[in-house]
Amino acid sequence: MKVVPFTLLALLLVAIVPNGFLAVPSTVPAFLWSSHYDLVSDNGMKDSVNYQIISPKALAKSVLSEAGWSNFLCNGKEFQEPLDLALLFIGRELQSSDLSMNKHEHSTLLDLLKLSFTSSNTSMAFPYVSSSEDENLEKQLVSGFAESCGDDLGIGKVVFLGSCSMDDTIYEDSAAFHSVQEYLNKKMEGTRTGKTDLLVFCNGGSQPFNIAEVPQSEGEVLSGLVNSVDKSGAKYAVLYVSDPSRMVLYPSYRELQRFLEESTNTSLTANSTVCDGVCQIKSSLLEGILVGIVLLIILISGLCCMMGIDTPTRFEAPQEQ
């Protein structure tokens, strides 16, 4: 009989504790592709998918061993034509659950990833990469590459662009470039050293080409980067990894952007008939208040009517005929 109170207490705790404390850590997808080399590793296969839940460090190890990146990022590997560039794109929009949804708001990005995955010579997918907030994803992956290669690390340059956080004392080459286009121009103009550069671009709202334009979606940014690398004539491989935890760092960014848009377009906002998220929340609250007031009036009216009913205390006896 003592088991019942403990069971009820456990159920009560489950109901009270927020979902975030008991939920499984969220996972993010990763896609790798290249049309400039064929997969020659011992364990890898073309167009393969790894369905295991792996950490960022395990992802870096799998990219080197299974996807063949060790052939041009590590010394001592026999590779006929080393690549000029390994592009690591850190996104912030996709989660693993978005891959199975029929309707989503990131259709441009998903279409680009699917097309690149199916049309490239070498491609791999990692749908379940565990996200961690202890350290930035770009640092975890770069350090994972260095640990996997060990003393045989053969990367030419490591350049961080976009919203990546870095240590300038370690990656001094990153301070010399302010945009991807500037890096590509200097890369193709210089003499080839036979080593592959690692370009890490973190999508965080900044423009990759240092041009003041309308903010682009993540699919448009990634497509623009790939097209620029194609036009430069460089041989490259791309690794896309999503990191939605970046959006938590700036929770008021969208509210600030919405406020600025409304303040600069007051005339359009006044004539607009579209109800956005904030409008829907306010309308739902007003509807709830109105319904509550109506129900309260009905309850008070019913109580007043019941209190106004007077029943006789004595009934006359029926007359005998």
Automatic annotation (TrEMBL):
Its main location: membrane. It comes from the Eukaryota. This is V-type proton ATPase subunit S1/VOA1 transmembrane domain-containing protein. Keywords: Membrane, Signal, Transmembrane, Transmembrane helix. The chain crosses the membrane at residues 289-309. Residues 285-316 form the V-type proton ATPase subunit S1/VOA1 transmembrane domain. It comes from Stylosanthes scabra. It is a single-pass membrane protein. It is found in: Membrane. The lineage of its organism: Eukaryota, Viridiplantae, Streptophyta, Embryophyta, Tracheophyta. The keyword Transmembrane helix applies. Residues 1-23 form the signal peptide. PANTHER family: 2-C-METHYL-D-ERYTHRITOL 4-PHOSPHATE CYTIDYLYLTRANSFERASE. The keyword Repeat does not apply.
